[in-house]
Design a protein that fits this description.
The chain is of the alpha+beta class. It has one domain: Phosphatidylethanolamine-binding Protein (Alpha-Beta Complex). The strands form two sheets. Strands 1, 3, 5, 6, 8, 9 and 10 form a seven-stranded mixed sheet that branches. The longest helix has 18 residues.
Length: 186
């Protein structure tokens, strides 16, 4: 059977085959689940994990890491800074990468003793490690974003969030997100 003479059908068939080829070259990202035993999705983060408490990282657990993952990365940020009614920037609270894909959780306070091989980036206080919620005004949202990567990234020498995201481009095979909220004094 020849495709000549099929006109619009031929064009459609060729387009469909090209899209199918692109889809196979870039498989869809897997959806991972990330949770905390200390707060629910979109629930309030307990004060102990903030500047009003011991400022220690909360316990986190995840599942659904794709089999193709070679490493994991975690970014925690606040898109509501400085005022949720008039946000001007996203404040970065924690940047880690190089977690082994078999790692299924981080215990409370894990920022003080990360799993072997895990590397840290800089938060917006220009320090490594976890910096808990400390909103100057209003109730802010805190996004705990987990990424599964099809590679182990080299040592990026304390990257910023932007530098880590750039290094991860084209390597993300799964994502998961947990959102917590916090308002001082409540």
């Amino acid at each position: 059977m020849s495709l000549r003479g099929l006109g619009p059908a031929r064009t459609f068939l060729i387009s469909a085959l090209m899209l199918l080829g692109q889809a196979r070259a870039h498989p869809p990202e897997a959806r991972m689940q990330i949770t905390s035993s200390s707060f629910t999705h979109q629930g309030s983060i307990p004060a102990k994990y903030t500047c009003e408490g011991s400022d220690t990282s909360p316990p986190l657990a995840w599942s659904g890491v794709p089999a193709s993952a070679k490493s994991l990365a975690l970014i925690v940020d606040d898109p509501d800074a400085p005022d949720p009614k008039a946000p001007k920037m996203t404040w970065v609270h924690w940047v880690i990468y190089g977690l082994a894909p078999q790692t299924a959780s981080l215990a409370e306070g894990a920022s003080k003793s990360l799993p072997s091989g895990t590397k840290e980036g800089l938060n917006d206080w220009k320090k490594t490690g976890y910096g808990g919620p400390c909103p100057p005004i209003g109730r802010h949202r805190y996004f705990f974003k987990l990424y599964a990567l099809d590679t182990v990234l080299p040592d990026l020498r304390k990257p910023s969030k932007a530098e880590l995201l750039k290094a991860m481009e084209g390597h993300i095979v799964g994502t998961g997100e947990l959102i917590g909220t916090y308002q001082k004094g409540q």
